Amino acid sequence: MNFGDPVYVHGGRSIALGLTGFSSSIGAETIFKNPAGMSRFSSSRVFLNFPVAKISERIIPDSDWSGDTGGAYYNDNTYMKVPELAIVYPFSKKLKVGAGMREIQNFDYKHTKDIYSGETYQGRITYDAEGSINGYNISFSMPFFKNWNFGFGYELLSGNPDIERKEISGTFTKTKYSYSGKRCVFSFFKERGDWNAGFFYTGKTNLDYDLTFTSGTLNPQKYKGTSHLPKTIGFGINYIWGGAVSAAFYFDIIKTYWSDLARVYKDRISFHTGIENDISARVKLRYGMAFIPSYEETSVEKVFFTAGIGYYVSASIYLDIGFAYGKRDYLHQWEGSGVSYDGRVDETMDLLSISLDWRL
């Protein structure tokens, strides 16, 4: 079982700025993508994020392969993800440490599929999944060379998702997973006043799992296996211009090694950019774009348009709201019972994050 097309970005600020999870992480959420960024903190920081996601899919057949007079079928799921929390504490002027938790993969999913034989309706198959894989992070940062800082994060992964399927006959099959794993992230970050830059690397992750499969009244069957999360390497930069911090530009470029999951998958490079404008002393306007190529489909990109605002609630509390709309359309071919079917797939992804950043 592989995990595809994830969007690992945290907080309303990063969402609004083109999903720039590295260059735009200036609060405690930096422990997840850029632990070296903790070097800029002179006091403790707390980050709390409430994310919501909506995933929609529509398949439009080019021929009457469904027997349903050529109609489309739709799949739509909306879920509230696990709230994210991060805390950073400066042990000294040089050593900063952080800890936090976040959701890595959400399994909440419901879908029904009507089955036809020719034009005769045979019945409906129902899929229902729930649960998630979560990460528990410990990080530190310290000076490295001149204005460069080094950061390291260690993350324990665990989760217990369930996947249930109801067959046409009414028989239920249920698959229960118990995941465990760990991964590390390394980053280098340089802060130079009006511009900042850095690099990060996240290693390939092995997720070991115990699986229990139950079909109807039969005795449960148990298996063991390993899933994977791909390694990533990236570069991020942000530049502030306009004198008294009137605007800022953010840019991330990330390479994801999808071939770590399967050799048939292609390694891809995604591009993320965002702009932040000061509307007033307390309000910031943000907008951006992201291009994320598919690791499975050739020449297919998911394009995100993003926007949001930041607001100083007080001198120590900052509120960020970010929204991203992503869309991907492509032609796909299915094989079944010795017959090929063609159709167009329209996918959308809506992401909303409301986050708070405290300076203690």
Give a description of the structure:
- The chain is mainly beta and 360 residues long.
- 2% of the residues lie in helices and 66% in strands.
- It contains two helices and 20 strands.
- The protein has helices spanning 12-16, 30-33; strands at 45-61, 73-80, 84-90, 96-106, 109-117, 120-130, 132-145, 148-159, 162-166, 172-191, 195-202, 205-215, 221-229, 232-241, 247-256, 268-278, 283-293, 301-312, 317-336, 339-359.
- The chain has a 14-stranded antiparallel β-barrel.
- A hairpin with a 5-residue loop joins strand 14 and strand 15 (247-256).
- The longest helix is centred in the first third of the chain and has 5 residues, at 12-16.
- The chain is globular.
- The protein starts with 11 loop residues before the first helix and ends with a strand.
- The model is unreliable at 64-71 (pLDDT under 50).
Summarize the structure.
By secondary structure, the protein is mostly beta strands. The protein has 2 helices and 20 strands. Strand 12 (205-215) and strand 13 form a beta hairpin.
